[in-house]
Amino acid sequence: NIGRLRETIDNELTDVVPDWDTLPTCSGVVFIAHMPTTKTELRTKCQPFESSTVQIKIAPHPFARGGVRASYRALVLHKRVWKEYIFKMFLAPKNRTSEQYLIQLESNNVAKCLANIFMTKTSEGKRAAKIGQRISFLESRAVQVTKEDGQIVWYNMEKVIDGTFDKWTTNIGYCNPTPENRTLLEFAKWTYDWTRGFMMATDLQGGKSARK
Predict the structure, then answer these.
(1) Nearest C-alpha neighbor of 156 from the set 78, 98, 80, 210
(2) Rounded to 5 degrees, what are φ and ψ at 155?
């Protein structure tokens, strides 16, 4: 029952940053996929591949959840430095398969491709860039984590975003039509029109960032 799963997760939510020194270090295999760059490549399934093996520490409790996944704080060892990341796990156990996490990876690459084409090739995107409303997507990874007890657990991994996290559109038709969100709505409609209904960017969420 997804309702019970959400209730269980909500009872675990915490803003407290864990004492990382007390948490075990796990091994993770990172998977990536090549990003499509053309309309033709968008119609071709990308095959993810292993990129690297990393050391990871994952918070025992989530700090946030959406309708489908819960988010956990994590540290990843990169060039001898622990860096902060967000690890996302599906709420429903039936979705916690390698296939589902790799699908999320491919979806992220598709969104990045569409945003890049919109911002560089369309008049709406170029206008938005001039006024500081650039649309971009975080790079996602799929990670196969081996816990201390040998259990294999999958996550999607993203960098930490700046600012406040907002939801602008959903998969069931909601959109926040405030003027500052105009570019996002134009982008969503353009993805449908440009691909002739083959795909559409929806469930747009994230935050405003000073980074370009």
Answers:
(1) 98
(2) -145, 165
Count of positions (residues) in the chain = 212
* Helix runs in 30-90, H state only: 39-42
Q: What tokens appear for 90 in the block?
A: 């599906």
What pLDDT is recorded for position 211?
Answer: 54
pTM for the model = 0.89
Q: Could you report the per-residue pLDDT of 172-183, keeping only the tens digit for each?
A: 888 887 877 889
Angle among Cα 44, 70, 57 to the nearest 5 degrees reads: 95
Q: Which two tokens stand for residue 87?
A: 């690890």
Helix axes 98-121, 123-130, angle to 10 degrees: 80
CA gap 54, 16 in Å, rounded: 25
Distance CA 117, CA 87 (A): 28
